[in-house]
Amino acid sequence: MNETAFELHPQLAADTHFVGTLGLSRVLLMDDARFAWLILVPMRAGMRDWIDLPHAQQHQLLDEVELCSHALRALVRPDKLNIASLGNMVAQLHVHVIARHVDDAAWPGPVWGVGARVPYGAGALTRRKAELLALLHAASQG
Amino acid sequence: MNETAFELHPQLAADTHFVGTLGLSRVLLMDDARFAWLILVPMRAGMRDWIDLPHAQQHQLLDEVELCSHALRALVRPDKLNIASLGNMVAQLHVHVIARHVDDAAWPGPVWGVGARVPYGAGALTRRKAELLALLHAASQG
To answer: Which regions in chain B score pLDDT beneath 50?
Structure first.
């Protein structure tokens, strides 16, 4: 149950690109260019549900969700944010932070399992990761 | 933007039964006996996204999600908890807290839009609300 024992679940690793690290969580970008979609994974082994974290870290995770939310708002001006910790497929604790638009590929339904992922091209991925890192840095200063 | 101006969205009112009130939120029971499914609605007008709340109330909402999570764990021993603030259909800020089981009607997918709701019978509803109130009370003392 300590930080050194944390290993990212291979399915999350396969579906995402690494963006950066916050105090508690890894920030991952879902490899689906249809949505601006981040996933936060607390770097603690053995966690499944949000309430499995110690109380202070539950709050810290929410603060990191807030940072990501502000970054996505600044990046793509979403009509709605979707925040979700589901984990039925991948039980390792992770939180989705997804920018939704009324004309996106899944609106108004949830994004999970809708259509086929559209992987980022190399240039678009490099740009998006750089934008996100800059916005997360700015939000964490703000 | 003050508490007196808060009104529950009519769609949420139509889909749920009132269970009780916590410090920030109304606790509602989704009228679908297939799942043990609570919805928290912060009693603040004009809120859409979790990050629209003042920072301290963001934490308070998470604390109330935690209470509901513990109540659902005690009630039905779920395999997984699903926590989600989506709001694509009903923009008023609300958080789903759903007890999931590997043999439930939607597993392993999300619950939204799956099949037809199974409304509670009168006796089952009365029992479930009483159980939830007792568990929420116990969790809030813990």
So the answer is: 1
